[in-house]
Amino acid sequence: MKKQVSLILCLGAMLLSTTPQITLAQANMPETPSDVKAAPSDAVKTPSGLASKVLTKGTGTEHPAAADTVSVHYSGWTTDGKMFDSSVKRGQPTSFPLNGVIKGWTEGVQLMVEGEKRRFWIPADLAYGENPGGGRPGGLLVFDIELLSIKKAPKPPALAAPADAEKNEAGASFKTISKGTGTKSPKLEDTVTVNLTLWSPEGEMLQSTEDQGGPAKIPLEKLRIGGLPAVIQTMVDGEKKVAWIPAALAFGGNPPPGAPAGGLVVEVELVSFKEGVPPPAVPADVAAVPAGAAKTASGLASMVISKGSGKEHPKATSSVTVHYSGWTTDGKLFDSSVTRGEPASFGLNQVIKGWTEGVQLMVQGEKRRFWIPAGLAYGENPGGGRPGGMLVFDIELLEIEK
Q1: Hey, which residues are catalytic here?
Q2: For residues 28 and 87, what is the distance between their CA atoms, to the nearest angstrom?
């Protein structure tokens, strides 16, 4: 049988006349372990209850740490012998940060060296639990894991701001690691390309653009780590800095689940930036609807800033292309296609009620200012980073698509 399988794998369509066809997936199908029901007596157990047995010794000398990224081949079975997942069957190894998987893997793979193959019996509490749902396997799970390679995680910088660190007005401390080659620094309206690595104050790496495929391209005004945009505005292309950001500043008083209580330590490299358009001036009448504005029965108020050249109005079912800027009544710009340099296109029945109603009043080429009550926008306290209360928009209708 081994000879027959070899012929199929090497010659593709060639089959022995007396042998049923064997697919590549079948050829790569790992056999169910004979000891899949329970850990054998010669398996080694850790205090957590994880059991394992070396199947093939490795050639490496170093063990991965929890923060490292590993590349492995693996197959997993439930104790009734059912295979539920296998990179071997797919013919493609998998890579992941070791602290981003089930506890049994995080603990177990740290026992291994490169080239080693080991079988693990992982108790339910170190896997997905007894009855996890969502298609995940429950109870004790058995894995054969071959550790192919280890990519060491970057070492954290100093976890507390040193005495010679600078401090910006927002409250973030920062220090230059290496100087850049650029001569200009980005402004808030610019789009930056950055490498970011985030650590907790205890030295646990939380996130890295390197693990996510490379540098991130972000409009600087959209970077939601408080204090960090101001740090990046002091940088030039190629420069690296470390920033120490208190929790209250980093998360704006609304930390996401799992956010470190002590804030963030951020290593940032400014790869490059693209200049944006300066933000539009805040309207003089942003705080309240002026006396000359026209009102509809819904409470929507508007005023034509410049007349259009078109004759037809869009319908609620139309798609439109617009340039716009939006402010809260205290004059804070919260969104603008103008600063991004890219108009927005959308179906008029897919946006807030004030837009759906208001843009239908316009013709192509027209620019109009709207005062949209909370009930026609996002409400008084919408959460999720959306602005609340009455909103003011300047909208220019560029195109109507029927």
Answers
A1: 324, 334-335, 352, 378, 393
A2: 10
